[in-house]
Amino acid sequence: MEISVQKHIVGVNVITLTGKLEAFTVVALREKQEELLAEGAGNFVVDLSSLTFMDSAGLSALVSLLKRTRQNGGDVVLVAPSDADAYRILALTRFDQVFKITNTTYEALQSF
In this structure, how many other beta carbons lie within 10 angstroms of the beta carbon of residue 88? Predict the structure, then answer.
């Protein structure tokens, strides 16, 4: 007999972003965030590993999500962008010290 146990994290939404997170594309992210928050979502992993660019509008959306989830007892964990330029904005603004940032989605999920 074989027994397999998988640990599932209930109540964590994983948002994966690909491409550019900028003023022209951030509206879609904000809409998705609003939808998930309205459904009662409380914890988020935002996977930025496939981002090639992020500007201040993208950062603003992430900070807004963090603020709203923390007000309700939740949290946001980021998966680090693999692109150095996309990560640089997190470091320059010191948001890498505000957000918990992991290297993989698995690590991010384990932090909850």
Answer: 13
Gap between the Cα atoms of 24 and 20, Å rounded: 9
Tell me which residue of 5, 14, 6, 1 sits closest to 109, measured CA to CA: 14
For residue 53, CA distances in Å to 12, 49, 99 come to: 25, 11, 18
Alpha-carbon distance of 103 to 49, in angstroms, equals 8
**Over the stretch 10-26, which tens digit does the pLDDT of each residue have?**
678 889 999 999 999 89
Q: How far apart are CA 59 and CA 95, in angstroms?
A: 9
User: Is beta strand 100-102 parallel, antiparallel or unpaired with respect to 12-21?
Assistant: unpaired
Over range 95-107, report the average pLDDT. Answer: 94
**3 state DSSP class of 44:** strand
63: nearest Cα among 99, 35, 24, 19:
99
